[in-house]
């Protein structure tokens, strides 16, 4: 292993990377100033094209993804939008998994549709049947596995192979698996997106996203779009994600193990209707998960026996340890609620029931289990 440190001069070197703050980049000659745009896609010409701190993070994420290039963005949602908007234009057909992250679907339905993009959703647990959805003007397939909240597994390598034969680009939101669980670029996917807000940052205190690719042409297009849309990142946030990455693998392994312990306990409880978690044998996505992914994530969903508003309120009121909030992947366990109507409104609904989603943190899982036990007791009391 090579030594990793950051020298500032002969007299100073640190183990942590420098935080470079800059809007203005200075030039040593008028010629290089005139030609500054030729420094792209990875050079520096103005703050909007990134700083050395952003580049360090991009190199680190590209390495993790097994990819050549990476662009970091101010959030995971910015990365998803960038990956689509850099390549899709009016008249194109865009295929999106019905269980994609909700804000990507809203962006497609409201903004892209307004610009004349034909947006179509496909079932989230799809495999080779994706071929039936491809049209002559299909430009890109957006994938996410497992699906947001409902956790369906798509067969990503199978879809990538079919897309390639049709000349259709593919983008995967790989946030749940992370590159430790799955590396989309090694399976023929063109663009790999991570919401670094979740596992990479790991401490629920920043927003950041990343798009990685092996294709230099795609990368140049991403960089230009990023710069034109002003999607640059704060160097402090890049620094914090670089720091988060130092413990990423340890956190990921422990949190994924904790998720399995908690989900397996929940499975035995009488008030549980169903656990949605492809890592569990018996889940409809288990075989696809086992075939394609190395390990699991820290996030899973479950449904309770009966939909009853006051019983759900009693459940959440009884929680003493688990905070209720959006997001996941941080060191603190977190719980979230998705009402039944949200599920019924989906194009390919997995269920018509309310869903509870749990992100396992680094705590002793016994603490989370104790909290869930109290909450389940309150739920069943309220049902009486
Ligand atoms: C799967 C997935 N992708 C993307 C995002 C968006 O990330 P961010 O919150 O950084 O915009 C989220 C956020 O919850 C997510 O869960």
UniProtKB/TrEMBL annotation:
The modification N6-(pyridoxal phosphate)lysine is found at residue 198. Pathway: Amino-acid biosynthesis; L-methionine biosynthesis via de novo pathway; L-homocysteine from L-cystathionine: step 1/1. Signal peptide: none annotated. It is an enzyme of class 4 (lyase). GO terms for molecular function: cysteine-S-conjugate beta-lyase activity; pyridoxal phosphate binding. Its EC number is 4.4.1.8. Its cofactor is pyridoxal 5'-phosphate. It catalyses: L,L-cystathionine + H2O = L-homocysteine + pyruvate + NH4(+); an S-substituted L-cysteine + H2O = a thiol + pyruvate + NH4(+). Keywords: Lyase, Pyridoxal phosphate. The keyword Zinc-finger does not apply. GO terms for biological process: L-cysteine catabolic process to pyruvate; transsulfuration. It holds the Pfam family Cys_Met_Meta_PP. Belongs to the trans-sulfuration enzymes family. This is Cystathionine beta-lyase. It comes from Advenella mimigardefordensis (strain DSM 17166 / LMG 22922 / DPN7).
